[in-house]
Amino acid sequence: MRFLSHAALGASVLLLTACGHLAGQGLGAGTSLQPRSGSATSGQANFRQQGDRVLVRVEVSGLTPGQEHGLHIHDKGDCSAPDAMSAGGHFNPTGKPHGPQNADHHGGDLPALKADASGKARAEFSVTGVTVAPGPTSIVGRSLVVHKDADDYKTQPTGNSGARIACGVIAAS
């Protein structure tokens, strides 16, 4: 009887481990942000799947000192245009309106970056509505875009955050 209990426990652990792996636990992605629209803005971002959330770490330089800048995941993995318009609109796999993370929002709506006095920003936050794992909500193969202005989280569908000053295609790591 005790043998069956241990066997059942072992099978349960294996099943839970497999389910966690299939759900994308611990999967990662990243991008290197390159200047666009005549800016000197550049940086890096990393994404890590943690359950139903994605942990985001971003470091950007060349921003307007003391200013907030919009940060979004865009639909297309294409930063080839000088103004990054080739990245398309915000990634919105569930058809939600533009907004902040604590309300209905596009999958690509991210918290703003706040530049320090030297024009650098570092941020770490987690988001919902997207994944690193393969599927319709995956951010892999899409673009991360830094905007010139702050996101007002009201104007549809973009947040009125201005020119695209840095862009990078998100790749699995």
Automatic annotation (TrEMBL):
<dbReference type="InterPro" id="IPR036423">
    <property type="entry name" value="SOD-like_Cu/Zn_dom_sf"/>
</dbReference>
<dbReference type="InterPro" id="IPR001424">
    <property type="entry name" value="SOD_Cu_Zn_dom"/>
</dbReference>
<protein>
    <recommendedName>
        <fullName>Superoxide dismutase [Cu-Zn]</fullName>
        <ecNumber>1.15.1.1</ecNumber>
    </recommendedName>
</protein>
<dbReference type="Pfam" id="PF00080">
    <property type="entry name" value="Sod_Cu"/>
</dbReference>
<keyword id="KW-0560">Oxidoreductase</keyword>
<feature type="signal peptide">
    <location>
        <begin position="1"/>
        <end position="23"/>
    </location>
</feature>
<dbReference type="InterPro" id="IPR018152">
    <property type="entry name" value="SOD_Cu/Zn_BS"/>
</dbReference>
<keyword id="KW-0479">Metal-binding</keyword>
<keyword id="KW-0186">Copper</keyword>
<feature type="domain" description="Superoxide dismutase copper/zinc binding">
    <location>
        <begin position="42"/>
        <end position="170"/>
    </location>
</feature>
<comment type="function">
    <text>Destroys radicals which are normally produced within the cells and which are toxic to biological systems.</text>
</comment>
<dbReference type="InterPro" id="IPR024134">
    <property type="entry name" value="SOD_Cu/Zn_/chaperone"/>
</dbReference>
<keyword id="KW-0732">Signal</keyword>
<keyword id="KW-0862">Zinc</keyword>
<comment type="similarity">
    <text>Belongs to the Cu-Zn superoxide dismutase family.</text>
</comment>
<feature type="region of interest" description="Disordered">
    <location>
        <begin position="78"/>
        <end position="111"/>
    </location>
</feature>
